[in-house]
Amino acid sequence: MSNVRRPAWGSIIPALTLLAGTLFAASASTARGTSLREQGRTRLTELITAEQRHGREERAEYRRLRDRVDRISRDAGRHDARVKRARAEADRLAADAGFTPFTGPAVRVTLDDAPLPRSGDLPRGARPDDLVVHQSDVQAVVNALWAGGAQAMQIMDQRVISTSAVRCVGNTLILQGVVYSPPFRITAAGDPDRLHAALHASHEIAIYRKYVRAYGLGYAVRTVDRTTLPPYTGNVTMKHATVPAEPPEDD
Questions:
Q1: Which letter does DSSP use for residue 123 in this model?
Q2: Nearest of 204, 159, 182 to residue 110 by alpha carbon
Q3: Higher pLDDT residue, 59 or 178?
Q4: Using an 8 Å Cβ cutoff, are 145 and 199 in contact?
Q5: Is beta strand 172-175 parallel, antiparallel or unpaired with respect to 178-180?
């Protein structure tokens, strides 16, 4: 009989089997029945959905508190002349600030991503970023319409004011906590002729239209004879604004 020691396979195999079973169980528990490659995407979708729900809840709470403040202010105004004057001044400025509906003729601009070919291949010389609408494209339209004398503006279904910020993540638009997918619609109320002229004169929009012709990005402009834009309902807390100091009085 040989004295050479043989590997103890009989004791190693059960240990390996137990370890493999533990790893499979951990993977199944982590994936919860889905592909691990899709897990990151699923979590991102869930995160976006949760943030949208949180945003809706915050806006509802903001409207509730604002209505309560308005009621308290009205009650106080009946007995305090200073509050009454302040409310009258706020009411006078509400229309210009975007806090009341605005009705009139308008121009509506629609921006959309380019359709992908059926083959799935990109057009020759194109990058994926060339086929989607970017934040700078939406901002170029907004800036041109303001420059053209827009009296009121709406992006998708929301009124925008001077403090509204246009942000894009990927090919989605985030406006005041709400996420939108293309096509993006920007509606500006004002003199249609001036608004059309401002869009035509914009250098940034001219660049965008080159991509429209080259790759099929969506760009449509039409005149709306009469429309009503809703009032702004978001928060107006100033984060970076300061009240200017009053000039010293002459002696």
A1: P
A2: 182
A3: 178
A4: yes
A5: antiparallel
Angle between helices 36-77 and 9-31 (to 10 degrees): 30
Contact 158, 176 (CB under 8 A): yes
Backbone angles phi, psi at 119, to 5 degrees: -70, -20
Phi-psi region of 70 (alpha: psi -120 to 50; beta: other; left: phi over 0): alpha
Tokens 């940034």 belong to 204
Cβ contacts of residue 211 below 8 Å, gap of 6+? Answer: 114, 130, 217
List CB contacts of 186: < 8 A, sequence separation 6 or more. Answer: 108, 109, 110, 111, 138, 141, 142, 145, 153, 154, 155
Q: What is the mean pLDDT of the chain?
A: 77
Write the single-letter amino acid at 245: A
What is the DSSP code string of 153-221? EEETTEEE-TT---EEETTEEEETTEEE-SSEEEEEES-HHHHHHHHHH-HHHHHHHHHHHHH--EEEE
Separation CA 152–CA 139 (nearest Å): 15
| pLDDT tens-digit map of 116-125 | 777 667 777 7
Q: Extract the tokens encoding 21.
A: 């079973």
Q: CA 88, CA 85: separation in Å to the nearest integer? A: 5
Kindly tell me if the per-residue pLDDT of 183 is higher than 60. Answer: yes
Token couple for 157: 């279904």
Instruction: Identify the bridge partners of residue 138 per DSSP, sorted by sequence position.
Output: none
Helix (H) or strand (E) holding 142, with range, is: helix 135-147
pTM: 0.63
